Amino acid sequence: MLKASPLPPAGQLTPYGRALAFPEHTEAGKAALAGATEPARSIVLSPDALKAEAIRRTGGLTDFGKAPLDTPLSILCASLNEEIELHALGRVQVFNQLVGLLVHRLKFEDLWRRHPEILDLPVERPIIVIGLPRSGTTILHRLLARDPAKRFSPFWEQVMPLPDGDPAAPAQPDSRLERMRQSLAMLDTVVPELKTMHELTAEDPDEDISLLIFGFASLQFEWSYRVPAFSRWYRSADHTEGYRYFRRVLQTLTWLRGGDRWVLKAPQHLEQLGPLLTVFPDATLVQTHRDPVPAIVSLSSLTTYGGRRYYDHPNPHAVGADIAAIVERLLTRGMADRPDDDPRFVDIQFTDLIADPLGCVRQIYAASGDILSPEAEAAMTAWIADNRQGKHGGHDYAAEDFGLDAGDLRRRLGDYQARFGIPTDRRFA
């Protein structure tokens, strides 16, 4: 996986750690891996090759726009080539993901040139969930999205924000939703346990990171690929322009499919409060809070399991160290950059969200100036009834599976837990 972090000897891995590091693929997974061997041989992960393929796929568009591109793309390609070891399927997937990013850059710029009125559309008073990963952000985001007065981006739209052909005159019927359903069905055959950790559905919202990638202001590359050099660039860069690009993407989605009061979510916003509030100064920011130790361990499990899509042997210890560092970084920056007594921030405890989700919604709406309509309350109540915790089964993990020490993590993150009065999870006490 990471050339600089070899897999620990099998004897140093727990049984669950060994299962993650030496995955037993489904038959569908084995077929996908075998089928990628030949295509992967011809793939070149370089900025020039990626740009050339994007230009070819768009029929000759050449304007990628002025948002950050050349520097982050060059660093990312170098990191992919020099620091990690992708298997054949991973190499094919990374190539197509990056080409897809560049195709969208070309199509966005072309659309904005032909329809400049898009960039005059308002993105006013969004509600943005900014909590720690695995702290109830997905539950809360999907609950808020039940309000018919709110606009959210379903997963199919996040992955494929522009329709095929000319976005100004899209083909009908729109095939994107069905293509995403088919893609997720295939994903379920390759990584069947993913839904017990984080369920992906075509029509529900997910992370903003899928829309932030177009301006290279997204944690997605760090989450997915484990790319140290790119991560260093990402941590040191000012992502204000990337967030402005994100806003233009939201304006475009509004122009295409309507809506105005956006409900958004990404834990990465915790370390980007400066760019976020510069671009969305009238936002209501909802921070969910949970004991960070189980959140780190749970996220390490999800990330290591998902790593089989890219690597022969995902390294649970390397992933655990990375996830702990990322979460510590998010929480430290989030505390340092958050203004004192700012009424735009709403704090929601994970325990309160599970116990009284509608009460938490009312608390958020009181801060954002919204009214919970009878229609929204009924839709939310129905969603809660159909989405109880553990719907797809349990997910067991321990700090030791990822080379982590719960006591050390608690010492590193104690300031955060104390500042927000977060109860300790008894399993990790």
- Give the name of the CATH superfamily: P-loop containing nucleotide triphosphate hydrolases
CATH class: Alpha Beta
Largest sheet: 4 strands, parallel
- Given as residue ranges, the uncertain stretches (5+ residues, pLDDT < 50) are none
Secondary structural class: mainly alpha
Percentage of residues in DSSP E strands: under 5%
Summed up, the domain count is 1
Give, in spatial order, the strands making up the sheet with the most strands: 2-1-3-4
End-to-end distance = 32 Å
**CATH architectural grouping:** 3-Layer(aba) Sandwich
**What's the CATH topology name?**
Rossmann fold
Shape: globular
Task: Give the proportion of residues in helices.
Answer: 40-55%
Topology as a string of helices (H) and strands (E)? HHHHHEHHHHHHHHEHEHHEHHHHH
Structure, briefly:
It contains 21 helices and four strands. The protein is mainly alpha-helical and 429 residues long. InterPro entries: P-loop_NTPase, Stf3_sulfotransferase.
Structure, described:
The protein starts with 14 loop residues before the first helix and ends in a 10-residue tail after the last helix. α2 crosses α5. The chain has a 4-stranded parallel sheet. The model has no long low-confidence stretch (mean pLDDT 93). The protein is mostly helical. It has helices at 15-21, 27-41, 47-57, 70-82, 88-114, 137-144, 155-159, 176-190, 194-197, 209-212, 220-225, 228-236, 240-257, 273-279, 292-306, 316-337, 350-355, 357-368, 374-386, 406-412, 414-419, and strands at residues 127-129, 263-265, 284-289, 345-349. The protein has a single domain (10-428), classed as P-loop containing nucleotide triphosphate hydrolases (Rossmann fold, 3-Layer(aba) Sandwich), CATH 3.40.50. The protein has 21 helices and 4 strands. The longest helix has 27 residues, at 88-114. It comes from Brevundimonas vitisensis.
